[in-house]
Amino acid sequence: MTPYSCYITGTDTGIGKSIASAALLHALRARGQRAVGMKPVASGCEDRGEGWRNEDALALQQASDPVPAYADVNPYALPQPLAPELAAAEAGVSIELATIVAAHSRLAAQADAVVVEGVGGWAAPLTATIDQVEVVRALQLPVVMVVGLRLGCISHARLTARAIAADGANLVGWIANGIDPGMARADDNFAILQRVLPVACWGRLPHAPAPDARAMSRYLTLPR
């Protein structure tokens, strides 16, 4: 596994973890690496005739090379668009860390890097007893944080970075995502983020109504 295997978290939900994760997969593939994506727990799924499927998890599967089995990309596909703990209860499903670890092991066996997308913000729990840091520890992954560029993002990013460190996880980089095209002084806010966050920025994704992961990958500059 390369150092680019990582756990993607965010400053909140809806800030672009999925597009950042898929873009990172394309960036790794452009370097000649076998890279696969994983979204261990996904809420808000549809039954498309082959079982429950999540749009973000499908995007990660499509951005992967080799293309892994969906069941390994997304071992817990939960129908209701709710917090994982609630969605799992609605579906009568018990989320088990061992199942996530086993699926990740199968992905890791076929790739140079596995990009694992978390749920919501860093502090969003998976279950009453499993926080996201437990997944990070079990998979032995560094963390990359996605920051949605909008009003308030500086505080959210600093608090998230501090929470990751306080939990004993290793934050290695962050990716900015332009989720608000009307954000006032976005460049100045980005500059402040570069100054106050403790790790390097891996790229800044521009706003796009329907972002293309391959095109977005060109905005990423991965550390050596």
TrEMBL record:
Record: active site: K39
Cofactor: Mg(2+)
Annotated Mg(2+) binding sites: S18, D56, E117
Catalyses which reaction(s): (7R,8S)-7,8-diammoniononanoate + CO2 + ATP = (4R,5S)-dethiobiotin + ADP + phosphate + 3 H(+)
Enzyme Commission (EC) number: 6.3.3.3
Residues holding substrate: S43
Pfam families assigned: AAA_26
Pathway annotation: Cofactor biosynthesis; biotin biosynthesis; biotin from 7,8-diaminononanoate: step 1/2
GO terms, molecular function: dethiobiotin synthase activity
Cell compartments where the protein resides: Cytoplasm
UniProt keyword list: ATP-binding, Biotin biosynthesis, Cytoplasm, Ligase, Magnesium, Metal-binding, Nucleotide-binding
Chain residues that bind ATP: G14, I15, G16, K17, S18, I19, D56, E117, G118, V119, G120
Main location: cytoplasm
Main EC class the enzyme belongs to: ligase
Subunit structure and binding partners: Homodimer.
Protein's job: Catalyzes a mechanistically unusual reaction, the ATP-dependent insertion of CO2 between the N7 and N8 nitrogen atoms of 7,8-diaminopelargonic acid (DAPA, also called 7,8-diammoniononanoate) to form a ureido ring.
Family assignment from sequence similarity: Belongs to the dethiobiotin synthetase family.
PANTHER family: DETHIOBIOTIN SYNTHETASE
Name this protein carries in UniProt: ATP-dependent dethiobiotin synthetase BioD
